[in-house]
Write a structure and sequence with these properties.
Layout (H helix, E strand, L loop, with lengths): L4 E5 L6 H11 L9 E5 L2 H10 L6 E4 L16 H7 L3 E4 L2 H6 L4 H14 L3 E6 L3 H5 L3 H12 L5 H4 L3 E4 L13 H18 L2 H6 L1 E5 L7 H5 L6 E4 L6 H8 L2
Parallel strand pairs: 1-2, 1-8, 2-3, 3-4, 4-5, 5-6, 6-7, 7-8
Helix pairs in contact: 1-2, 7-9
This protein binds 1,3-dihydroxyacetonephosphate.
1,3-dihydroxyacetonephosphate binds next to β8.
Length: about 250
């Protein structure tokens, strides 16, 4: 049985002060089912959130990490730095990082490998096609290729520890949600690709989230699909009531 996992991605929103206000409202979360929940916040807010959620089951995640442990990389943050704060998750390869910060599959692969080898922070690996790719009917082969490149050199005993987030770029922040069938069909394609790369025990246990305009009004129809195990939520994770509504779908 895969336990559903819903994570918020705050992107470049909130301050330490407003993150603390959210945490105060959110930490009494009473989920109506067995579920994992996390907030992935900007670096400056992570320590405050780890502290605020320390007596709860709510996890905390970063949104990026460098693939070297240390070095002359001005502006970057390393895995030892995140471990020191005590974060549980790290988003890797979000489409906004791929698009605006030229993050390649090669860099994404190095980051995922590093996190898996260390084992203390779970990668949430984002994949997904642009509108152009979908309109050309090439979305399945595009996402399969991302999976192949991002999992290169990762062994079967570690691969299942990755959380995959399928986020079609055309559905992010646009209000255009993929239909439940479109989202489920791609999550199934990803699961089959994982089975082809590894085996059925990995593909049946790996968590695959959907992300892109998930909100309280549509979370149930998306999250009850067979191959969708959770959600990566942007805008609607910024308000505690909305995020609770998504979790208690
Ligand atoms: P929205 O939920 O705002 O569309 O963002 C999705 C996303 O990019 C989560 O990582």
């Amino acid at each position: 049985m895969r336990v559903p996992f819903i994570a918020g991605n705050w992107k470049m929103f909130k301050t330490i002060a407003s993150a603390k206000v959210f945490a105060d409202e959110f930490k009494d979360l009473k989920a109506n089912k067995e579920i994992k929940v996390a907030i992935c916040a900007p670096y400056t807010q992570l320590a405050a959130l780890v502290e605020a959620f320390k007596d709860t089951e709510i996890g905390v995640g970063a949104q990026n990490v460098h693939y070297e442990a240390e070095g002359a990389f001005t502006g970057e943050i390393s895995l030892p730095m995140l471990k020191e704060i005590g974060v549980d998750y790290c988003i890797i390869g979000h489409s906004e990082r791929r698009e605006y910060f030229n993050e390649t599959d090669e860099a994404v692969n190095k980051k995922v490998k590093m996190l898996l080898e260390d084992g203390s922070i779970t990668p949430i690996l984002c994949v997904g096609e642009s509108l152009e790719v979908r309109e050309a009917g090439e979305e399945a082969s595009f996402v399969e290729e991302q999976i192949e490149k991002d999992f290169a050199g990762i062994s079967a005993d570690k691969a299942g520890n990755v959380v995959i987030a399928y986020e079609p770029v055309w559905a992010i922040g646009t209000g255009k949600t993929a239909t439940p069938d479109q989202a489920d069909s791609m999550c199934k394609t990803i699961r089959e690709k994982i089975k082809a790369l590894y085996d059925e025990s990995v593909s049946e246990s790996i968590i695959i989230q959907y992300g892109g305009s998930v909100k309280p009004a549509n979370s149930k129809e998306i999250l009850t699909m067979g191959d969708i195990d959770g959600a990566l939520v942007g805008g609607a994770s910024l308000k505690s009531e909305d995020f609770k509504g998504i979790i208690n779908f």
